[in-house]
Amino acid sequence: SQKIEQNSEALNIQEGKTATLTCNYTNYSPAYLQWYRQDPGRGPVFLLLIRENEKEKRKERLKVTFDTTLKQSLFHITASQPADSATYLCALDMDNNDMRFGAGTRLTVKP
Amino acid sequence: GAVVSQHPSWVICKSGTSVKIECRSLDFQATTMFWYRQFPKQSLMLMATSNEGSKATYEQGVEKDKFLINHASLTLSTLTVTSAHPEDSSFYICSAHRTINTGELFFGEGSRLTVL
Q1: Contact B95/A103, CB-based, under 8 Å?
Q2: By CA distance, what is B33's nearest residue in A?
Q3: Which site among B33, B44, B101 would you substitute to test the A interface, given the most A Cβ atoms closer than 10 Å to its Cβ?
Q4: Nearest Cβ partner of A101 from B32, B44, B112?
């Protein structure tokens, strides 16, 4: 079965630094991969989608890479701010728009 | 603004009672909606795929007689937790694709269920 691993349960960084989160998967080659942000007690909010034929995607301070050989996606937040503190989830397209989620990485940006 | 709305956002019930959670798509029609359950500090676990006008598709290990799903219209899916027990206490979230094949999922605000 598909296994999705996000590098760590929690990540603490200093404001202004770049946060890098990792998502690794096994046993399947998704057509695309997504990243979501989830705040406590709220539903996830879509951030970025990257397709299998794309190496990199950017949106403002966010950057996502997708290495289908390594079966890995990296999610970067540059010039991080305390407001970026949240849990970030990666999600893989399994088939028929069925998405499966990683456990998430809880990011804390300290002022 | 929100494109998928859930109600109620939180509910407390007694053990043995049933609880209904509604999920509405606000400005689009959703032939398919997804129901997830999330325990504290854990990921979203897909429970079932709700299909308008037909039976829901349940994930392995999810009891269809306990978690009743009804998708009677293109904008409303409901999840009913029947004969709730304390172990059913969780955060239930629904989602839908606004446009077919875009991939992006829009999530409801979630419903926190506490069974006493």
Answers
A1: no
A2: A98
A3: B44
A4: B44
C-alpha span between B25 and B75 (Å, rounded): 5
Cβ contacts of A95 within 8 Å, gap of 6 or more: none
Cβ contacts (< 8 Å) between B43 and chain A: which residues? Answer: 89, 101-104
Listed range (A97-101, B33-37, B97-101) with the worst mean pLDDT: B97-101
Tokens, residue B106: 């829009």
Alpha-carbon distance of B104 to B101, in angstroms, equals: 8
Residue B100 — very low, low, confident or very high, per pLDDT cuts 50/70/90?
low
Nearest Cβ partner for B109 among A36, A43, A91: A43
The CA dihedral of B81, B84, B87, B90, to the nearest 10 degrees, is 40
A42-74 burial, b at 16+ Cβ within 10 Å, e below that, comes to bbbebbbbbeeeeeebeeeebbbbbeeeebbbb
Do A34 and B104 make contact, defined as CB atoms within 8 angstroms?
yes
Radius of gyration (Cα) for chain A, nearest Å?
Answer: 13
Q: Which residue has the higher pLDDT, A9 or A18?
A: A18
